What does this fold into?
Amino acid sequence: MRILALCFLLSLVPVMAEAADAVSGDEIKLDDGRAVRLLGITAAGDAAKSRLQTLIDHQPITTEGDAVDRYGRIVADAYVQPGQGAKIWLQGDLLQQGLAFVYPPTGDEPHIADLFKFEHEARKAKRGLWNDPAYADQNAAEPLTIRYGHFAFVAGKVVKAERIKNKIYLNFGEDWRDDFTITIMAHDLGAFEKANIDPLAYQGKILRVRGWVKRDFGPMVDVTNPAQIEMLGESPLRP
It folds into this structure.
């Protein structure tokens, strides 16, 4: 397996500190007490934490981005450069190993296309979590099998797309009372307009959506940006 090494020609905001510990598979504690949350991904399980610890062990961390979340963590793309070797993008490595998935996508992540590229490669190869049935696509055509209160990947064909007052509904069945539904609020449509996407044009298309499943008659996922939705091919479910 090739080692992921990405060199970006963007100005970096250096953390200028060594990593002390991998708190989890997507969070690092620096030796100066600061914490770095890896932008745009969620890691799964002890294997991700172990991999991250191996990558950062006794290495200086460089970050790209300076956002801070409500917990006081730096939220950024993070890199290490062992010895004189090539720079390693931590998010990309974890995704490529199948130890993380893209979330929470806002669509504004500077390397969102690369995040999805590496996730798709790992998914296709069934690496890591993609070999676990818990992360497989759930079938939108079988709403009774979709679990509430969980983050999920749900795939299927949009039967009807319509706007009712301030909300767009993408229904994956004939009866909205019990089918799987994607909802998009009017105040989130700006992100779709920016991406030149008309959500109503999803009717008849096969999609994969990622997000938290809630109960509103049937199972429902609220989508706030187009990065949560992927267009699939002919089959509603695929690796």
Observations:
- The longest strand covers residues 13-24.
- The chain has four helices and 16 strands.
